[in-house]
Design a protein that fits this description.
Layout lengths: L3 E2 L6 E2 L4 H7 L9 H6 L31 H14 L3
Antiparallel strand pairs: 1-2
């Protein structure tokens, strides 16, 4: 996973978990997508803010063009993602 150095604080974070790190370290208010929030072991400590204004995003679906010679690669990626996803 790609990690970024968060300046002088020395925090190393992945882009997906940046909001959680900011919240956890008291650096500010962060926006988290539900799956990222659910992955945080200490999410019970996170206090929701302005819930009436929260947006609901439509689901994201993945597609690929059949017969592009990438079927094996796509199957490998899908199998990997399914293994890494906790439902």
């Amino acid at each position: 996973m790609n990690y970024r150095n968060l300046g002088r604080s020395g925090l190393k974070v992945s882009p997906l978990c940046l909001g959680a790190k900011i919240i956890r370290n008291g650096l500010g208010i962060g926006r988290l997508f539900e799956p990222v929030y659910a992955m945080q072991p200490d999410n019970a400590r996170f206090i929701p803010v302005m819930e009436p204004y929260w947006k609901t995003y439509p689901p994201v679906y993945l597609y690929y063009l059949k017969n592009t010679g990438k079927t094996r690669r796509v199957k490998t990626l899908v199998d990997f993602l399914i293994n890494k996803t906790q439902i």
